[in-house]
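Progress against Task 2.4 (sequence-to-structure conversion) is shown through the following example record, which the project officer requested during the mid-term review.
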Amino acid sequence: MKWKQIFATVAISAVTTLAVIWGTGTFITKNNSYAGQQPGMVPANYKYAGLTDGDTPTGSNIDFTAPAEAATPAVVHIKTKTNAKQVNNSLPKKVPNNPFSDFLDDDMFNQLFGGRGRNVIPEQRASGSGVIISEDGYIVTNNHVVDNADEITITLSNKKTYKAKVIGTDPSYDLAVIKVEAAGLPFLLYGNSDDIKIGQWVLAIGYPLNLETTVTAGIVSAKARTLGLNRDKSGDARAGVESFIQTDAAVNMGNSGGALINTNGKLIGINSAIASPTGYYSGYSYAIPVNIVQKVVDDLIKFGTVQRGFLGVSFVNASDLTDDDKKRQGIPSGTEGIYVSEVPTEGGAYAAGIRKGDILTRINGNTITNGAEMQGMISMQKPGDKIPVTYRRNGKENTVTVTLKNKAGNYEIVKADAVIEALGADLVTLDPKKARDYGIAGGVIVKKINEGALNDQTRMKDGFIILKVNDQFFIPLF
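Structure tokens generated for the chain above:
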């Protein structure tokens, strides 16, 4: 009798346990803790992306050694030296003009008696990275890496060292091309930055913090980012071109000008900036897309300056307009695109029929939602190129063909003038009528002083008129 009771108790326990297990499994299946998702269910976006329903996503076993080995020999360490120089002291002098001005000018007096009219900037040294793009020694880097450098030295990963010269620079894009005299160098193949996707693996290669070649990995976290960093030669931020690739690959000071590559080892960007409150990497880094880099590099090598096409509009992102602004302009809430705030009559957009208040929605067939995307597309064009532009007006979409112009408002090739570049100023020919009013034969107006010889070695200011150079007067041709 006792054994029968024991057996019955065990049987009842077993049945109860099985029932609880079955019931619990059924409940969990119907009430999954992952927000109602059912085991084994794969949404369409994963299927179309080629991902499986397993625990291991496609591509998780990627080995980065092959692309790293292919790319590191073509990424160089750049070291620069800027010589000490004297610059004008813009502060008012605390002492009167020298009492010997009849015999010595102020500069000579300051040199002999230690006047305060000039300050001395000591020698400066800096370093960055660069990418070899041809076997005969062309190297692309950031403008801010080599800007104002008097001496540039590059070192390869195999420790070979070369002196480099600047071929061309453009601060608007923060890009520069330098060259070393060598042959048979390793170089990186261009990829296609238009093909990159959010979430794909990328590698950053460079020489951060004066370390040897360093490779870091991350993913593309955003595209067409703008940070407001770039300026043109006059310091105007409106002329800066930014459409950065944002990644979480670790980048630090010294990585500037280095390579961002894909897992095939191809160049997809030039590392340029980081977002950090400390000046060191803290989560995000930014690279210039290689499709923009290619265009700028080609122009700098061929012409010495970038052949930049301008659409001819001032704009704001439609998403940045307030509800009141949209209501006044008759723009439906939620509208995406570029709101045209001004259209100069001499620009290509005006000639094509685009007007203030239009919403640009597509450039060259590509949808645009912000200014960075538009700048990225336009920056790959040159003056004279014809591109289709789609805009919305009064609820209707229209597509027109815009012929891009250069900054001067025509279609001509812009040539770099080494002398003007060295002077560091925006110069405009003096109007003949004004010259007669001033009682002079002619001259050149210094419209704006930038960084260069005029700023460093003279006391000129904006608005001065240059009458002669090398004892030769400027005589206008009437």
